[in-house]
Amino acid sequence: MSFSTSRASASALPSAPSPDPSAHPLAPYGWDDDWAAAFAPHLERGLVPGRVVRVDRGQCDVVTADGLVRVDTEFVTPNDPLRVICTGDWAVVDAGGDPRYVQEYLPRRTAFVRSTSSKRSEGQILAANVDFAIIAVSLAVELDLGRIERFLALAWESGAQPLVVLTKADLVPDALGLSYLVRDVEDTAPGVPVLAVSATDGSGLDVLAAVVSGGTTVLLGQSGAGKSTLANVLLGQDVMLVRAARDVDGKGRHTTTTRNLLVLPGGGVLIDTPGLRGVGLYDAGSGVGQVFSEIEELAAGCRFQDCAHVAEPGCAVIEAVSDGELPERRLDSYRKLLRENQRIVAKTDARLRAEIRKEWKRRGAEGRAAMEAKRGRRA
Ligand SMILES: Nc1nc2c(ncn2[C@@H]2O[C@H](COP(=O)(O)OP(=O)(O)OP(=O)(O)O)[C@@H](O)[C@H]2O)c(=O)[nH]1
Ligand SMILES: [Zn+2]
């Protein structure tokens, strides 16, 4: 069966420039001319570039031109959790020292962030320099467009290009039904390629592999959406190779089964960390705007600049709904995500205020104690 269900033709799909493997040993890991330019000053100082494949407490595994090395990360683990080195970062490595360590990392192009449930006021960095975010959606269950929109907001917010991959297409009985499902999702996801694939009959997988070749990809989606299956299909035999490569540092850590950053046979890498799998929505403000770009465009025609599109006179958005031009479900979903986003931001601010108060209380207590000690000495 040939793959022809999606209106998004292969030519309309984004494609990352395929790195020339002869150009640089790190090209398969995403190294390109822009990274090389950013690294040039470090190279002059005898430092080497490496991509972070895994981060542990205090150390990380970095793949360099000479293979995988274990390096200390004390200089790249600041208090701000968003600035801590993470999988996908391009590290500036001092490989000559003992211990070897990361001096800094190159400015990130994109970043996936998760809101933390801890007392910390900021999010947690999950993956850096991701080009493509595959949002896996199972066709075995009824489509939940609201959920897709939520993942899209998260993906846009990170800076990566989202791709919706409808999995288990073999379970949809007829081609016409499948094309309707694809169109529904396309209408929900302006600017986002939508592909239907099946790991069972192989349809669509070659297109998907071609799209993500040369870039860095992450897999998002509900449990059971088929992410592991897609990862296995994309990776082919390379999982084994990367595991074997872990033995390069001679410490036998190849026994690990944690898959973090893996080379794809067709070029490019897949980042698959446990944290990314349960990712939520964190301050996806501009991301929400991109998911609902047609609403934002309509809003430009509202009479009031701060129109909330609820009951304002001259509201172009409500007018589009009553004209049947904009589905009411879209507007509801937009409002819901904006509200949720505001709650997260408000919660974050409240945490920050609470932390500041605690700090001032502590200082106040110290100050009082010092004053009392002084008084005591005087008495
Ligand atoms: N019929 C059919 N089943 C599939 C296909 N792809 C995956 N599945 C099945 O769907 C189930 C879930 O797939 P997984 O790949 O484990 O899903 P996941 O998203 O990784 O799930 P979590 O690990 O819970 O996040 C498994 O039983 C797969 O065999 C497909 O193309 N067709
Ligand atoms: Zn309006």
From TrEMBL:
Lineage at the top is: Bacteria, Bacillati, Actinomycetota, Actinomycetes, Kitasatosporales
Naturally occurring in which organism (per UniProt): Streptomyces fructofermentans
> Which NCBIfam families does the entry mention?
ribosome small subunit-dependent GTPase A
Q: Does the keyword RNA-binding apply?
A: yes
Annotated Pfam families: RsgA_GTPase
Q: Where does GTP bind?
A: T167, K168, A169, D170, G221, Q222, S223, G224, A225, G226, K227, S228, T229
Q: What name is this protein filed under?
A: Small ribosomal subunit biogenesis GTPase RsgA
> What is the required cofactor set for this protein?
Zn(2+)
Q: Where in the cell is it found?
A: Cytoplasm
Quote the gene name from the UniProt entry. Answer: rsgA
Specify the enzyme's EC class, one word. hydrolase
